Amino acid sequence: MNKTPRIPIPAEVKKYVWQRDKYQCRSCGKTATETNLTIDHIIPLARGGQNDISNLQTLCFTCNRQKTDRIDPRFRRHFDL
Description:
By secondary structure, the protein is an alpha+beta fold.
């Protein structure tokens, strides 16, 4: 499997993903007023995930750290692995 190169996510894309996800962690549900939010690749770049907006989600810093480069099983139905 080829690792996708990491590119900086433009500010407008981050803003769109945060708005789409209602400024809420998709894992634990914490909001931007409760924690620091990050942009996460649902299918990690290290596992062949893409830099496409459909592969991005909002996670809090803690959930993002716990996920590392694992594939979140809740999203398997959306992607062919």
